[in-house]
Amino acid sequence: MKLEMIEIKNLVRSNILELQPYSSARSEFTGKEGIFLDANENPFGTMNRYPDPYQSELKQKLADLKGVTPQNIFIGNGSDEVIDLAFRIFCDPGKDKALTFSPTYGMYDVSAGINNVELIQLPLSADFQIDLEALKPYFDDSKIKLMFICSPNNPTGNLIDQKAIDFILENFKGIVIVDEAYIDFAEGDSLTKKINQYNNLIVSQTFSKAWGLAAARVGTAYAGDEIISLYNKVKPPYNISQLNQKAANEALNNFNNYEANLNLILSERKRVENVLLKIEKVKKIYPSDANFILIEVENADQIYTTLVEQNIITRNRNKQVKNCIRISIGTPEENDTLINRLKNIQ
Ligand SMILES: Cc1ncc(COP(=O)(O)O)c(C=O)c1O
């Protein structure tokens, strides 16, 4: 147990602390039966009613699955909303800062920019781990309110060393957001187990990857009660549509399907890695704990463009990691096509 709990309210923007949140009609009356004449809905139709603003059915299912309580869950319109709301809750535009470790997921930078918050980007080491010695001086900068750790990291695919994350949680006095969008594909444990130990920890996950619901836009944040209350305070009242809640509930009811697809993606990842290793123009394959692999080739720009000309779209990461391309694991047929086309590029 962390000895000293962080005073979360000292990290929150003062206008957010004082904010009187919107009270939706559906959150004031939670019963199921009644004549609903409160929310200016149309009485006719099947999608005519506003959805549950706090997604209680979905949260209960997630709570059972993850071993947390529903009060420790926030559901976002994708985990991109979890990221954006963190800036809005904790960072005063033009004043506060956030920090992350590059190369990493691009939305931390974009969200920081939208919110007019400076994002410090410390380079990861050669093996894509956090350089704690380089980070330590930043622990003293009280303007840094948020630290984003992406694990498994996008685009490099590796988990961040658990001991380094623990060290940050023990020493950083701001909010630590561990982005676990790809955790289902990883060998390591999720940080959700630590939300009761560290009241400044937010673990973000998503239905977009292993659960196969990228189109539905459902992301999750797991954190202590205080942080979740702040998220509920600033979120739009009905941020998760009825359709999206239904899609996520159905996915959770169909756990076997999730597991079967996950296992297939993992076995395909291994197969693709093994085949790519034998292709001469592939110089290196970085080990992956995600549903994509980062490969180094002789000339990433040329290979990326040639694949696009053949209607195969990968992600050129040459600007982030020299001569590297990120390849998502597709269906076995898609992977075969990718491999064959790659082999045939001159
Ligand atoms: C690391 C990481 N976090 C978050 C997201 C966004 O996920 P969502 O679809 O839940 O908004 C992505 C999407 O690619 C990602 O790579």
Automatic annotation (TrEMBL):
Modification N6-(pyridoxal phosphate)lysine occurs at: K209
Gene Ontology molecular function terms on file: histidinol-phosphate transaminase activity; pyridoxal phosphate binding
UniProt pathway annotation: Amino-acid biosynthesis; L-histidine biosynthesis; L-histidine from 5-phospho-alpha-D-ribose 1-diphosphate: step 7/9; Lipid metabolism
InterPro entries: Aminotrans_II_pyridoxalP_BS, Aminotransferase_I/II_large, HisP_aminotrans, PyrdxlP-dep_Trfase, PyrdxlP-dep_Trfase_major, PyrdxlP-dep_Trfase_small
GO terms for biological process, alphabetical: L-histidine biosynthetic process
CDD domains named among the record's database cross-references: AAT_like
Sorted UniProt keywords: Amino-acid biosynthesis, Aminotransferase, Histidine biosynthesis, Pyridoxal phosphate, Transferase
Reaction catalysis annotation: L-histidinol phosphate + 2-oxoglutarate = 3-(imidazol-4-yl)-2-oxopropyl phosphate + L-glutamate
Boundaries of every Aminotransferase class I/classII large domain copy: 42-342
EC identifiers of the protein: 2.6.1.9
SUPFAM superfamilies reported for this sequence: PLP-dependent transferases (SSF53383)
Names of required cofactors: pyridoxal 5'-phosphate
Subunit structure and binding partners: Homodimer.
PANTHER family attached to this UniProt entry: HISTIDINOL-PHOSPHATE AMINOTRANSFERASE, HISTIDINOL-PHOSPHATE AMINOTRANSFERASE-RELATED
Family assignment from sequence similarity: Belongs to the class-II pyridoxal-phosphate-dependent aminotransferase family. Histidinol-phosphate aminotransferase subfamily.
Protein name in the entry: Histidinol-phosphate aminotransferase
